[in-house]
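Subgroup meeting minutes
Present: P.N., E.W., G.H.
Scribe: E.W.

1. P.N. recapped why we're keeping a running log of single-chain structure predictions: easier to compare across weeks, and new members can see raw inputs and outputs side by side.
2. G.H. added today's entry (449 aa).
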Amino acid sequence: MQDCLRRAAPIVAGHVTIALLGVVDTAVAGRMPGVAFLAAVGLGSIFAHFVFWLFGFLRMGTTGVTAQAIGANDARGVRLSLLRGAGFGAVLGMLLLLLSPLIVSLAVELYVQDKTLTQPFSQYLTIRFIGAPFALASYAFYGWFLGVNRSALMMVIQTFVIATNIILSPLLAFGFGWGVEGIAWATVAAEILGAVLSLVCVVRILSRVPQLRLSRKIARADLLDVREVRRFFAINTHIFVRTLCMLLAFQFFWLLSASVGNIALAVNTILRQLIEIAAFALDGFALAGEAMAGEQVARYASKKKSLAAVDSVVRVVFVWSCLFALLFAFVYAVAFDSIVAGFTDIEAVRTAAPSYRWFAVFVPVVAVWAYAWDGIFLGLTLTRAIMVCMALAAAGFVLVALPLTALFDNTGLWIALYLFFALRALTLYVAWRRWRKGKGRKEKGNLLR
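Output recorded in log:
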């Protein structure tokens, strides 16, 4: 119990700071005249998150493999996971930057139904893509920090990132008069500085551990190892598809939000920030479980001992996750009106928001089960299972979201989102039971493939 809390506490704190990046952007935009700026920045940050987090496998794949290498005392594997993840992330980020004009044009066509949003939406997104190489490389750095049990260090870096954004966002938006562009530049600057600080910390860690020290010869041999590169892509393909299904489901949610109207979109933008704060915090326990499960499954040669150790991790992760989910639900129930007032002074948005209070309040309690199972499965690198479960949940969400939104407008859309979280948890539980009974043992024996 204590080990889980010790690992999770800095992750929770660090993840809350990352969630606050979007909160700062939304709060600053909410102080601009008119609902268009809030809606444009909200929609732009959502789309940027969608595109960047398509490559979230750089974090998720890195943590599980690194933790398993630690459990097996494989220094070369620890080094490889860092080199492949960060290097591939930087390359993918450069490709996104080169393709950004096309991506932004496509996003405008898909998302912007009110033409007053076109200019601020395009400005925000164009600038955000400048930070893509740094944001994607940071995913791998963060995953590696978790895998080598340096979650406190990750928290410090993420706190630095949000502090930078908190200072720069209002300064550039209002002080320099850059408006929406200032909000975007503040986030990009924070991402760049966070990546640089992560790299400095990685170099210091590697230099202090003799087995992990990098020479030019070692780095080149590791990066060009064909077998290891194939293993890297095999692990991350399932995670990529899983993440794509999840993000497409959320993008469908935002497309339907935009179709309901700018006020509903603005309200959902604020509620989304509440959900993301809770999600990032609760994900801290999932990530602690991910690292713990990865270590435990690689530590024991006996299947029986290995499974018993993983069962213990599962119990601990769920106890802490549920306790914190209830805590978030309580805080949101008590402070909802004050939180909304802190985001915006637009009266129409403040008036509409209370109708959706309880959707924000109970999301942590409903969604926490899916978050926790995701962490366990990723730590065991049971990636095929999480891919299939996410695809089923996303398909179910799409099927019910359209008719529910048509019948009940924004309320129906939130009901569909609740069903999405429930489907994720249910399908993952069924997959776990099947694996636990023996049908997943073949995959367990090949966890690193």
